[in-house]
Write a structure and sequence with these properties.
Elements lengths: L1 H18 L12 H17 L5 H27 L1 H10 L8 H27 L6 H30 L16 H16 L6 H34 L3 H9 L21
Helix pairs in contact: 1-2, 1-5, 2-3, 2-5, 3-5, 3-6, 5-7, 5-8, 6-7, 7-8
């Protein structure tokens, strides 16, 4: 237990260090700080637990791939797209009204969340559990999540390059309106599933569940924020109205077409 607590603290401090980039720009707490923290945590798990099974090693590698893909994509998009910078300026708090105690609270809570998100794999390693069915299934779901998110980002970039003033309803966007957020949900659901056979006791289960539930909540909040923005931009377009009436917002085959009125969702 002492070793487990110590390594958890090490991971938390690492996430604090990486996500401190948010003090330079507030949104970085939840964007660049998020992606690169997950990548760093994946690397740290490999270093802290060198004797790993193939499954756990692959899980850590997927954290690194996920984190660098997300962080790199956000970094490139921010510095190469004026439209994206304007969108972020309008839709995301710039932190100018947040005093230092508030920033510290956001910083520490984000860092803790990032560790909780990867905790199912961490606890598997700390509990000396190797590869089993739950881990294999979880890894497959994680890979599907990364693939979907990457595909969605690529297809949207191509569609916007072709017609920047039109909403994207091609490719995977035919099935859900926020496939990149669905990819996030899939990835972290895979992480959570991977720990089912390795978690011991109430606190480990609570940590793993909180990490999964929080990121799912955040993705639904992100979907709401995107819906509100698209309603402002395309609300008068009959094609957009037809699209939103037949295409679920986040979960395929689930007839949830709007979360705009769910003000309790914040993402």
């Amino acid at each position: 237990m002492e070793v487990s607590c110590m390594t958890f603290l090490i991971l938390f401090i690492l996430a604090l260090i990486i996500s401190s980039v948010g003090f330079y720009k507030f949104v970085y707490f939840i964007s660049l700080g998020y992606g690169f923290s997950i990548a760093a945590l994946g690397i740290a798990l490999v270093i802290l637990f060198p004797a790993q099974s193939l499954g756990t090693a692959l899980s850590c590698i997927l954290f690194v791939i996920y984190g660098f893909r997300l962080g790199g994509y956000l970094l490139v998009r921010e510095y190469s797209s004026a439209a994206y910078r304007q969108t972020m300026k309008n839709d995301i708090k710039d932190g100018s009204n947040v005093k230092m105690p508030g920033k510290i609270a956001v910083w520490t809570s984000c860092a803790l969340l990032y560790v909780l998100e990867i905790s199912p794999v961490y606890f598997r390693l700390a509990n000396y559990r190797g590869t089993d069915v739950c881990l294999i299934v979880g890894v497959i779901i994680m890979i599907c999540g990364i693939a979907l998110e990457s595909t969605a980002d690529y297809q949207k970039s191509k569609a916007k390059a072709k017609n920047p003033k039109r909403f994207c309803d091609s490719g995977v966007f035919r099935f859900v309106r926020c496939p990149n957020y669905l990819g996030e949900v899939l990835f972290w659901t895979g992480v959570f599933v991977s720990g089912f056979s390795a978690l011991h006791g109430f606190w480990q289960w609570l940590a793993a569940f909180c990490g999964w539930a929080c990121i799912v909540y955040i993705m639904f909040g992100g979907a709401r924020r995107l819906e509100l923005r698209q309603n402002r931009n395309y609300g008068d377009d009959p094609e957009y109205q037809a699209y939103v009436k037949k295409t679920p917002i986040l979960l395929p085959l689930v007839p949830l077409y709007s979360v705009a009125d769910y003000k309790w969702l914040v993402g």
